[in-house]
Amino acid sequence: MLEKLAWTPVHKVHQRRPLCVSPETPLSEVVDLMREHHRSAVVVTDPEGRLVGLFSERDALTRLSHTDPGWTTWPVGEVMTRRPTTVGAEDSIRSALQRMKEGDFRHIPVVDAEFRPLLIVAMRDILAYVAEWFPQEFVNLPPSPELEAHQRWGG
Amino acid sequence: MVSKAVDLMRERRSGCVVVLDGEQIEGIFTERDFLCRIAGERLNPEATPVGEVMTRSPDTLRATDTLTWAVNQMVVGGYRNIPIVDDDGRLLSLLSMRDIVWHMTEVFAEVDRPSADETEPAGWVDEGGG
C-alpha cells in the first residue's frame, strides 16, 4: 500500500484550481483574495497564463514591511517567489514531497507542458490525501487523545 | 507587539510563536494570523499587541499521543502547528506539519516503485461457488 501511495500521481491529491494573479496586482488585493478564498498561496502568471511566481503566507510574513504602510500598493511581482519549483501532473507524491523538502516550502504548483499552472498542491493537501489511505486509523479515534487505549483491557 | 513576534519568527524561520503566561500557553500566533489579522486588517504590527490577534487556547497534544491524532487535528482543524505539552499543560515543544511531512519523505524514499500490475486497483475475482 505504501508503494502505491508514494507513487500516486500528484494530480490525484486534489482538484482545486489555483488562485492566479498578475505580477502587477497590488498586495492589498492579493491579501484580500487569499483571505476571501481561504488560500495560503496564490500563483502569479504572465499575460499568456504561464507561471512566473508564487506568493504565500510565509512571503507575507517575511517580505511585507512593518514600517511602511505603503506595502499595500506594492505589486506582488516585487515580493513573490520567482520561478518556483514545480512538478508535472504525472509526477509522484514522493517526488513532489522531496522537492518541497529540498526547497523548504509548503506549496508546489503543478504545471502543464506550456508551464501553465493546473493545480497548486499544499503540504496539507498531501497529508489529507495520505490520511484517506488509512481510514481505520482515523475513523476509530476516540473523542479525545486521553481516551485512547494504550493497552488491552476488559474482562 | 506583533512586530517583535514577527522578528522572532523571521529569525528562527518559524511559522509561529507560542504565547505564554508564565508556564501556561495563552495562545499561538502564526503566519496565517499575520496575513488575516494584521495585513488583512491593515493593522500596524508595531502598535498591535500580539495578544489581540493570536489564536487563544490552541489545541495541544502530549508527547505520548500518537501521530494519528496530530494528523487528524492538522487536517480537520486546518492548522499547521501543534504545541506539545506535559501533563500539567506546560509547553515542551512544537510539532509542525513540516516535521510530519519531512518524516514522510524519508519513509517514501525507501519505497520502491510498484510494478505496473500493482498500480491498478484489483478487479472482481470470481471465486466460484453458487
Tell me what the structure shows.
The complex is a heterodimer of chains A (155) and B (130). Chain A is α/β, with parallel strands linked by helices. Chain A has helices at residues 2-6, 27-37, 57-63, 93-103, 123-132, 135-139, and strands at residues 20-21, 41-45, 51-56, 81-82, 87-88, 107-111, 117-122. In chain A, the strands form two sheets. A four-stranded mixed sheet of chain A has the order 1-2-3-4. In chain A, strands 5-6-7 form a three-stranded mixed sheet. In chain A, strand 1, helix 2 and strand 2 form a beta-alpha-beta unit. The two termini of chain A are 35 Å apart. The model of chain A has no long low-confidence stretch (mean pLDDT 87). Chain B has 130 residues and is α+β, with helices and mostly antiparallel strands. Helix content of chain B is 34%, strand content 22%. Chain B is built from four helices and six strands, in the order H-E-E-H-E-E-H-E-E-H. Chain B has helices at 2-12, 31-39, 67-77, 97-109, and strands spanning 16-21, 24-30, 55-56, 61-62, 81-85, 91-96. Chain B has a three-stranded antiparallel sheet with strand order 1-2-3. In chain B, strands 4-5-6 form a three-stranded mixed sheet. Chain B is globular, with a radius of gyration of 21 Å. The A-B interface holds A 2-4, 6-7, 27-28, 31-32, 34-35, 40, 57-58, 60-62, 64, 66-67, 69, 71-72, 93-94, 97-98, 100-101, 106, 123-124, 126-128, 130-131, 134, 137-138, 141, 145, 148, 150 and B 3, 6, 9-10, 15, 31-32, 34-36, 39-40, 42, 44-46, 61-62, 64-66, 68-69, 71-72, 74-75, 78, 80, 97-98, 100-102, 104-105, 107-109, 111-114, 118-119.
List the helices and strands and how they pair.
The complex is a heterodimer of chains A (155) and B (130).
Chain A: H1 2-6, E1 20-21, H2 27-37, E2 41-45, E3 51-56, H3 57-63, E4 81-82, E5 87-88, H4 93-103, E6 107-111, E7 117-122, H5 123-132, H6 135-139
Parallel strand pairs in A: 1-2, 5-6
Antiparallel strand pairs in A: 2-3, 3-4, 6-7
Chain B: H1 2-12, E1 16-21, E2 24-30, H2 31-39, E3 55-56, E4 61-62, H3 67-77, E5 81-85, E6 91-96, H4 97-109
Parallel strand pairs in B: 4-5
Antiparallel strand pairs in B: 1-2, 2-3, 5-6
